[in-house]
Amino acid sequence: MTVHLLHDTAVLTARTLRHVTRSVDTIITTAVTPVAMMLMFVYVFGGAIDTGRTRYVDYLLPGILLITVASGVAYTALRLVVDRESGIFERFRSMPIARSGVLWAHVLTSVVANAISLAVVVGVALLMGFRSGAGVGAWLAVAGILLLFTLALTWIAVIPGLTATSVEGAGAFSYPLIFLPFLSSAFVPTATMPGPVRWFAEHQPVTPIVTALRDLLAERPVGGAIWTALGWCAGTLAVAYAFAVAAYRRRIG
């Protein structure tokens, strides 16, 4: 059974990855847009923002990485809506294919596509002056957090992908996810924010994730932020997965 699931998931993942490589707008949205934002913030606003001894590109990068993922997972919802409306799910049901493999194919495609986009963003950041003396262990921890974050947001994307009545509606869910880093410590220190905004920024999930990534890349001691970050990612992943599976069973049967 496990071998059957893995084989079906691999075949279906290859199918969705081919769709991604043929879609130029996907590449532009998931890689070029975050790069453009990074260029604008560093070269236009960076000089006006005091981040102490930390260069602004170093300070900014973790937040841009999260926005990259939030932008990328929107396409998971769009691809699911397109597959659903084309009747491909019904055709899959008539074939000896593991049903869970269909969802996992879209999720794994999201992980691969976002990994490529993240690598492009980091590469551009290096050209802009980003530097990190973090060791292999720290980089693996960064990759692990980003992977968990990507999985959590992708399973959130699966829900509107299965329940939305239109392509536009499926993609709209990502707007709050993209906007959330702006109300965190991703772009400016929370100490500069007014009271209510500062409270929200310091207690929403993006801030501890950004803080953990920033400390790891800067070779600073990682405190409780990493556990808070992992807790938010793991908790969101578990809840989103449960709702996504329930939506899949109701919609597809």
Automatic annotation (TrEMBL):
Annotated keywords: Antibiotic resistance, Cell membrane, Membrane, Transmembrane, Transmembrane helix, Transport
Signal sequence coordinates: none
Intracellular or extracellular location(s): Cell membrane; Membrane
Residue ranges annotated for the ABC transmembrane type-2 domain, each copy included: 25-251
Membrane topology: Multi-pass membrane protein
Membrane-crossing residue ranges in chain numbering: 27-49, 61-82, 103-130, 136-158, 170-188, 225-248
Gene Ontology BP annotations: response to antibiotic
Record family assignment: Belongs to the ABC-2 integral membrane protein family.
UniProt-recorded name of the protein: Transport permease protein
